[in-house]
Design a protein that fits this description.
The protein is an all-alpha fold. Helix content is about 70%, strand content about 0%. α2 runs antiparallel to α3 and α2 (about 35-65) packs antiparallel against α5 (about 135-150).
Length: about 150
């Protein structure tokens, strides 16, 4: 578990570091504050991963299965991330990306990181491990997933 946690932490740090490389503090002339975007976008990504992970954990604990495509919890996490990007960023503020492109890339990163941790915990995309273990083991899996999620927080 420690190696998986270490790899997950390194992957997340890498995403955030690569994201920050494209940030700049010079104004593109559109009246925006690119520095605000550079501070806000990584924080919104972190919050999204934490919230998305909590929603996934709730799906397993409450429904004994992975979240459906239209799950309110995961959708809300992504919507909050996108709202932060559209509120704090303008086109070109972040690595010369449009706000649509930035919101899309960060949303993908959020869902991918949170889902990856869940799949490693619950048994793949389909959560194959979860239904085949005891209640005590399910508690252990949920606790393990919570511990991995706390690494982002």
């Amino acid at each position: 578990m420690r190696n998986a946690q270490r790899r997950l932490a390194l992957a997340t740090i890498s995403i955030l570091a690569l994201t920050m490389v494209g940030c700049s503090d010079d104004d593109s002339g559109n009246g925006s504050d690119p520095g605000l975007c550079a501070r806000s976008a990584p924080e919104a990504l972190r919050e999204c991963i934490v919230d998305y992970s909590a929603a996934v954990r709730a799906c397993y604990v409450d429904t004994d299965s992975p979240c459906p495509e239209n799950d309110a919890g995961t959708s809300d996490a992504l919507a909050s991330l996108q709202n932060a990007v559209f509120t704090d960023c303008d086109d070109g503020d972040f690595a010369n990306l449009s706000t649509d492109a930035l919101a899309g890339r960060l949303s993908n990163a959020c869902a991918s990181e949170a889902s990856s941790a869940a799949w490693r915990t619950y048994g793949g995309v389909q959560g194959a491990v979860w239904p085949n273990v005891t209640d005590t083991d399910q508690d252990c899996l949920a606790d393990a997933h919570a511990a991995v999620s706390r690494m982002f927080d």
